[in-house]
Amino acid sequence: xxxxxxxxxxxxxxxxxxxxxxxxxxxxxxxxxxxxxxxxxxxxxxxxxxxxxxxxxxxxxxxxxxxxxxxxxxxxxxxxxxxxxxxxxxxxxx
Length: 94
Fold this sequence. Notes:
Blueprint: E1 2-11, E2 17-24, E3 28-32, E4 43-50, E5 53-65, E6 69-76, H1 79-89
Antiparallel strand pairs: 1-2, 1-4, 2-3, 3-6, 4-5, 5-6
């Protein structure tokens, strides 16, 4: 997992919510939300990777703490997500 602070939109039937991803990996991420979640439901996100790139992701909640902190497993990630995770994993050239 990589610690991040990524803005995202969680799309919902009751309205979209701005959320912040706290840490990410190729297969999942963690965030805080005020929206009620169904543990068996799929969620759709638009994640702002940088000022010019937004990535759509489908994920499902797999755990929660204190009703607001959720861990998600990614169901469908485009190539851009994998490239983003690879960039976090690669050492920065000096």
